[in-house]
Amino acid sequence: MKPIMKKVFTLLAATAIGATTVPHTALLAQAASSPEKVAAALSQLTNQEIQAAIAELNKLGIMNGDANGEMGTNRPLTRAELATLLVREFGLDDQSALPATIADASPNAWFYADAAEVVGLGIMQTDNGAFHPKGTVSGEELAQTVSKALKRDIKSVQHWMSSVASPGNAMLRGETAYVLQMAHKALPSEHAKPTSIRSLNAITLIVTFDKPLTTANEAFDIAKTDFVFTHGLTLTNMPRLKTGSVATYIVPTSVQQTGATYDLAYKGQAAGSFVGQGTKIDMTEARQVTNDTFEIEALKANGIMDYGYIISAYSGGRGANAFVLDDHEQAGGKTYQIISSMQARQVTVTPEGGAPIVAKYVPFTQSTDGKQEPKFRLPEGQVLTPGLTYTVTSDWANLAHATFVAKTVEPLELASATAVSETSIEVTLAQDPQDELFSGRSVVLTAPNGDQTVATYKYSSRKGAVGVFDLANGAKLTKATTYTVKPIGDWSKATGVVSLMPQ
Q1: What is the pLDDT along the chain (503 residues), one digit of tens a residue?
Q2: CB distance 358 to 348 below 8 Å
Q3: Which residues, listed in sequence order, are joined to residue 252 by a DSSP beta bridge?
Q4: DSSP per-residue string spanning 117-158
């Protein structure tokens, strides 16, 4: 470890990959706070909270005082100190493939190598090569660096900082200790254990751990082995960390039985029990989308919230629509029902005078284009009969308006197709279909010699009217060959659409 000045105390920091980066010149301007502004920021925390955070970080060997043991809680943190602390706490030594050159410091400066490292990693920034080591660290800059180093969404870090400085204020050491204590708690661990479990609704659990799970342990193929329930209950998709929480997860399950007591074993160890809830999610309306697909709507205005808006993994992509729910599923004094993952969900649709039909969820249609309208599709080859009234029922949802009268829906028009690689083509429709109406669809490519290749829509690849389709079974396009592209099934219509593989 590189030597540092004794008076530099060690801090723990955190920020999220993909966090928006504010120009460094703006950060410097924000940090130039008046003494009154700086002091006002500290007053938002009690002295007891600050001292508790300092004591905890000191116990962990994260924060030390100067040669006289003074912590300097009311002194602003400098960028030089922050760079060194980030490197020491996150083990960033020699992690950058190309450490940056710092223009306004000597290579022999105590902080130089660390500053070069964090800038090379994109965790901190320079102003045309100038690092400004004596510049103070604003609340916004601390949130960004914490998010990147911790690989956690910036909205969560900002939530942890909500009781300290506003974004433009210079961060004091005492305030920083409080933020870094939270960040320390949020470090993932492969040894994380559940501390509490409760059922939220018929298909959702809220599970809190002592530490966040690692990325590997969140993956569905691992999680479905780690989470083992009694009475046949199963995990239906990966657990998702709630935005703003330290280690609380939304866990989707198969349908729970009302009043049944379930035991959970996590990684082979007993992890607690919970009582199943029969609470169904209050959906608003069922309506037809295509000749074989219908959707059921849920409205935020009615207190129903898709989990995509409140989980850490999605917060960066949901913009202003992303928000934080507290431990009671409340925000702004309002309680929300949470729709967890629709993966493997199904509903029953019954035509008037006919037999019930099981319709399965269409992947990645749960919440798109700002709408909460998961879609369900009839079994392959079946379509809705125009003029018939259909009723949708479910063991996990209540529908206020559960019926719709089927009609003939004009299929989407496939306007063109273009090869983007030897294994993928872009399919363009005549109009933007909105939502994920490409989902689950395929096309067939026919070469001049009659050889055929199937390509299937790549989930979530749609940009307006254009979607990417990947060739199946490792097939590749032949260069300089013109293919005829036609939809499989009646989801779309096409006449003479071709895809040209470039030379």
Answers
A1: 433 332 333 333 333 333 334 444 444 333 333 333 434 444 478 888 888 988 887 777 777 666 666 777 888 988 988 888 788 777 788 888 899 999 999 999 999 999 999 999 999 999 999 999 999 999 999 999 999 999 999 999 999 998 886 667 889 888 888 888 888 899 999 999 999 999 999 999 999 999 999 999 999 999 999 999 999 999 999 999 999 999 999 999 999 999 999 999 999 999 999 999 889 999 999 999 999 999 999 999 999 999 999 999 999 989 888 999 999 999 999 999 999 999 999 999 999 999 999 999 999 999 988 899 999 999 999 999 999 999 999 999 999 999 999 999 999 999 999 999 999 999 999 999 888 889 999 999 999 999 999 999 999 999 999 999 999 999 999 988 999 999 999 899 987 788 777 65
A2: yes
A3: 204
A4: HHHHTTSS--BTTB--TTSBPBHHHHHHHHHHHHT--HHHHH
Say how far apart CA 285 and CA 305 lie, in whole Å.
Answer: 15
Inter-CA distances, 287 with 293, 389, 403, Å: 9, 11, 8
In 3-state terms, what secondary structure has residue 57? helix
Q: To 5 degrees, how large is the angle CA 366–CA 371–CA 376?
A: 35
- pTM (two decimals): 0.86
Type and span of the H or E element at 355 = none
C-alpha 412 chain-centroid distance: 31
**Could you tell me if 305 and 338 are in contact, meaning their C-beta atoms sit under 8 angstroms apart?**
yes
Query: Rounded to whole angstroms, how far apart are CA atoms 446 and 455?
Result: 11
Neighbours of 301 (CB within 10 A): 7
What is d(CA 486, CA 444) in angstroms, rounded to the nearest whole number? 6
Looking at residue 345, its amino acid is: R
**CA 130 to CA 101: how far, in whole Å?**
9
Pair of tokens at residue 90: 């996150």
Run of H or E including 288: strand 281-290
Give Cβ neighbours of residue 277 (< 8 Å, ≥ 6 apart): 199, 200, 201, 202, 256, 258
Helix, strand, or coil (residue 176): helix
